[in-house]
Design a protein that fits this description.
Length: 119
């Protein structure tokens, strides 16, 4: 039995989810060094050498959250075919098309070839 094609809202939700994963990944990646410097020197000023241990613990958690954001981004399922959108693991450069079915990022096949939904 064939399933009906997904509606436009399905695609819009999926693209919003991918955009959230991309923003989380890049924010955590780019903010790491400035945040580390701020936390390290602030805790060191107030707590002395003990601040180093706390800084280390904080940034171990930060790294785990960054890895989780990377995994979510890399394993994002294409809203059309359901396969991994990026198709190739461990890339920093985001894909603009599904590696499996060719669906362009932010495209909604229900709207036509070049129309994209308002996200």
């Amino acid at each position: 039995m064939n399933e009906p094609p997904p509606d436009s809202d399905h695609y819009a939700r999926a693209w919003r989810r991918l955009r959230f994963y991309e923003i989380a990944f890049w924010t955590l990646f780019l903010a790491f060094l400035p945040a580390w410097l701020l936390v390290h020197f602030t805790l060191r000023a107030f707590m002395g050498a003990r601040g180093d241990d706390i800084t280390f613990d904080i940034f171990i958690v930060w790294g785990l959250v960054w890895i989780a954001s990377l995994v979510r981004r890399e394993t994002f399922a294409c809203p059309r075919c359901g396969e991994t959108f990026h198709g190739r693991p461990h890339t920093i450069i985001p894909a603009s098309r599904c590696a499996n079915c060719g669906l362009r990022q932010n495209e909604d096949p229900n709207l036509g070839d070049w129309e994209t939904p308002e996200l």
